[in-house]
Amino acid sequence: xxxxxxxxxxxxxxxxxxARLVMVFVATFIAMPFSSVHxxxxxxxxxxxxxxxxxxxxxxEAAQENVSVIIEGGVIKSITEGFVEGTHVIDLSNSYxxxxxxxxHAHVTLYIGVENNPLTVLTDAHIRDKARLALSSxxxxxxTLNAGFTTVRNLGDPGGVILDxxxxxxxxxxxxxxxxxxxxxxxxxxxxxxxxxxxxxxDVEKTFNDSGLCDGPYECRKVxxxxxxxxxxxxxxxxxxxxxxxxxxLVYEYEDEIEAVIETAHKLGLKVAAHVASGDASRMLLKxxxxxxxxxxxxxxxYKLAKNAYFTPTLAAHKVVDPIAAQMGLDxxxxxxxxxxxxxxxxxxPILFGSDSGAVRHGEAATEFKFLVEAGLSSADALRSxxxxxxxxxxxxxxxxTLEVGKAADIVATAENPLENISTLENVTFVMKGGAVIR
Length: 439
Hints:
Number of helices: 14
Strand content: 15-25%
Distance between the termini: 73 Å
Oligomer: single chain
Number of strands: 14
Number of domains: 2
Largest sheet: 7 strands, mixed
CATH superfamily of the largest domain: Metal-dependent hydrolases
Strand order of the largest sheet: 3-2-1-4-12-13-14
């Protein structure tokens, strides 16, 4: 039989239908055993019981003695007086047990420290192969989790890999803390993140593809919408004029640019964290409704406004950068940061724990606690800054920040009472995230 065009079309259609049926069959066959396993796991979750000798369930409230924290399906099922038996028992009867820590200012995809030029590190992050950058970030992410930080707010990722890393953690592909992620930092041209300031040739600038640069309210709205579409959890606004880079703290932005960023983010359900290097900038930001002020200072006449926001003083990072700042003629860099944190705390501004890891070595973020206490915070408030207060600032207080029924089983333990020796948090002895024992 001679094949006509119509018969060819008929048999081609039959082949396509047959191919689809084969694909459906294969997909169904492959999916069946996994579905049944997941159903069995859901029907019979493993119960874990932690025997807590001293439980600081809600930092700022009295500790409970000799209680059992019962965990099922990654969340806290109940907290019971006395030590009860369970399928899997973890003995922390000689330890102080508290909520997993939250670092509100981290950069888990880079490390600068004092030994590296920040401009060189940032330039490298912009142009480096993304696969290599992501893989090199994994040890830093693991160090962060092992140090007891079960949640981090990652405020800036010049290499553009943080969203993939966040997703890989959420899917169980790699181990790491929960990541509340900003990606590129929103900044106006001529700010620190303008490639022209990173020592890059003009003809190479376009390869940076820094989608965070914007000028004027319309561009700034567009940038925020683009970042939201890409899947960020928070917007990082970097106000220009960083003294560490340029030796001055000028504000280049117009009020309508700042307002456009913050208003658009809030319309999209995103909070805004702002890198600040001057009191004038803080005043503009707080009037516009920014959610958190990073680094500081906060203008004294803006403390009243700041009570409706949060302040992350990043004291450990100031300590690291202090020698570099001194070389640039910025004497008293660390002492000034300590003084500003003390003043803000006394004025009633909510303080957040933020290590600025990336400047601070990964795994050593907890050094921030002792500086917060030295700046005048009580040990209880320092601990709250990395638990209760931090979870509220994230809008995640129903999930993390305290150890209560229905919340995630993010738990750390220390050998000593952190309310008596805050530095014991630098050496946590036990870490659990979402019911899974990390160490």
